[in-house]
Amino acid sequence: MRHLFGLLCTCILLPILALAAVAQGPQSRDSSSGIQIVPSRPRSGESSRGPLISPRTESALPAAPETHREQWYVIEFNGTAVGYERVSLTGPETVAEIEHNPGTTGIVGAIDPAFSETKSSSGNIFRTRDTRLKLKYFGQDLSVAALLQTEETTDGRLLGWKLNRTAADQKQIRRTGRWSANDGGYELTEVRQGTTSRRLLTLPAPASSPLVEAWTSSLHLRERASSTAAVLFPESESVRTVDIRCQGAQSIHDQGRQVAVARYEWSARDQAGQQSTYYLDESGAVILMQQPLFDSRLTFRRTLPDVALQAAGIQTFDLDLKTLLRINRPIENVASRTQTRIQLVPEAGSELHVASGDFQAVEQARGRTLLVTLTRPDLNVDARQFAVSPVSLLNDPQLRPYLTASPLVDLADPDVQRQARLAGGSSSDPVQIALHLRNDLARHLRYRDFSASIESASTTAQTMRGDCTAHAVLLCAMLRVHRIPARVAVGLVYVERIGAFTSHMWVEAKLNDRWVPFDSSTNAQQTGSTGVGCTHLKIADSSLADASGNGISLFLPLLDVLSGTQLKLQNDLVPGQPTNEQ
Q: Is 5 buried (19+), middle (13-18) or exposed (0-12) by CB count in 10 A?
């Protein structure tokens, strides 16, 4: 078993953490520093010299700006899906954040002085790779879940990383590394079964990131040309000399279309016969990677989130959606309070993306912490500010997706039409129509436990049973029947009886120039109430234009929030008094 696990680390985990899915786009190297990619040399005598690392001296193109991106891959073993991989990228960070919060760099602690110039001039890139693999070999469970977070310079130098890995026997390993120019290497920390160990991995210069896409596309290799680099693999905490060879251009199938790609072969010199092949499209993104495993083949194929999760046997986010996100202290007076301020503290190395809106203000606090202020919508205060003729909205092309039909929002269905007309009443005021629709569903749509899929508006209109997603989709459709732009919101809602937040879906209607939230799954029946107080925390929204029936993609934005985020209730603001933030 030990031999198999070692083979798994070498043949699966190292390539997973090294390249498996994933480029987010071409990047170039900074000529001032980093790892030099030198031409391949004869193999004889190479092993005695170790990895090839030397300061960079050649010039390079300036690095392309990076933004937050996400890619999904299905993992296949001999054509059978055995897992998935999700990769996100954020960066580069702005120097303003570092100057405002000195000594903070996310997952790796205080930034080393040697990198302050690089940080201030171009910023760093933060990547997260979540890999889930379910695989048995001759009756032995080799399944593994690995979460790798890296901090890199824009030219691919690895500044730090955090690796959490859980094996099939539930044994966990947590490893972190941070480059220290003063110590001349990486400061490594490992926590295994409650025991912490530390050591220094000595190197003359930072190694290249295991996320090969950070620098492969900048090599500009011609056909049959090759390069060599030293790559650090967090899984084994070792640096290995890697040969990369360009085999030329070809065309392959990618998500229903033929695309032009460049084919590369990748291999570590101390792993004879373990050669991986990967394909980069014109943007420099890896869309397919293949590698040998147990005399067979492991494949990472770029795809849509729904496809990746379903292929891996995940049909629903039921377990994730039942996950409760605790808050540090109870929220009092939920029914009457008009404002709630919550601090969101992401897991070390992670970055949260929370939507702002007319009733939800999002501010950047220290580091990557967010301060969210939720305000209760009150249509009784001044209903006229929301009053607008729906006809005036029809000519706005930006609102068209929120007025038209889709597979889930099937407006032409007779049951949806009838339900919308009966519930809307005789009023011509969009505000009153929206309130009537919300209140009608709150009274008549019976609750059902969370479903494995999201049902269409027509299905719910027929059965009048469903969970929060059924409420949201049907209410969204009924609003559109009345020509009121509507979309669904996905996020968290506070459950007072248990003192925690849980995943939830509700609706936002465009009234005048504001998106007003409505929730028919709550019990609120006060006059003018939208069913939303100031404990609905929106993460993202959707027009449902491309949503499929399984609903997986709608809840994907919640994954980062549900993974290790801390919620801290802030004191209510009192005029003339300090905030006394926690």
A: middle
Tell me how far apart the alpha carbons of residues 157 and 416 are, in angstroms, rounded to a whole number: 56
Pick the CATH number of 373-552 from 3.40.50.150, 3.10.620.30, 3.40.50.10420, 3.40.50.2000: 3.10.620.30
CA-to-CA dists, residue 200 to 190, 197, 351, angstroms: 12, 11, 28
The torsion angles phi and psi of 479, rounded to 5 degrees, stand at -65, -40
What element of type H or E holds 370?
A: strand 370-375
Instruction: List, in order, residues 6 or more apart from 31 with CB less than 8 Å away.
Output: 56, 57, 58, 59, 60
Tokens of 505: 């879906």
| Listed ranges 32-41, 85-94, 467-476; the one with the highest mean pLDDT | 467-476
Nearest to 149 by CA among 122, 168, 130, 170: 130
Q: Where in the chain is the domain with CATH 3.10.620.30?
A: 373-552
Task: Quick: pLDDT tens for 301-338.
Answer: 998 887 887 776 654 444 344 468 899 999 999 988 99
What is the CB neighbour count within 10 angstroms for residue 259?
A: 15
| Three-class DSSP labels, 482-501 | CCCCEEEEEEEEEECCCCEE
Does the reported pTM lie above 0.70? Answer: no
Q: Which of 508, 504, 480 is nearest to 558 (CA)?
A: 504
Q: What is the pLDDT of residues 260-287, one digit of tens each?
A: 998 988 888 877 667 888 898 887 788 8
Q: How far apart are CA 71 and CA 175, in angstroms?
A: 24
CA within 13 Å, CB half, 352: 30
